[in-house]
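To whoever is on call:

I kicked off a structure prediction for a single chain this morning and the downstream step that reads the tokens threw a length-mismatch warning. I double-checked the sequence; it's 137 residues and nothing unusual in it as far as I can see. Pasting both halves so you can look.
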Amino acid sequence: MELFDDWLKATGKHDAAAVRDLLSSNITTRCTIDEFEQFFEMDDNVLTYPDMGVKDVFVVAGNAEVAFMTMELLSGPRPGRQGEIDAIVAGRPYPIVLESGRWRMFMEVFSVGDDCPFLGSFSRQEVVPADSSTPNP
């Protein structure tokens, strides 16, 4: 529960260094603090769940360094798209791992290569207008 409390504080403040410190090495080896700052600049509500709490924590049998944390909404979901995200967050278990003596969020993200998955490869591509890809008659 301490992990989630720290997560709420860090994400609420958009504290890139603190958020990065709460994530497991599968992310921290790929993302810098600067990349997290860029990520937070893209959306003011990203990774923030003000009306969430930890419902249960289940430790994996035979491995005390892996657990799953489930969330619950403490009040109704927020309006619009944020409410949809709240429902998704509350509806699934989140893996957490014990690394360097501290529980950390393990985020299953998929990306090509070793780039930071929070920025995505799309952020490094140049936008080309659609009509430039169509041959002129």
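Update from on-call: the warning came from a stale cache, not from the record. Cleared it. Sanity check on the structure: The chain has one domain: 2-125.
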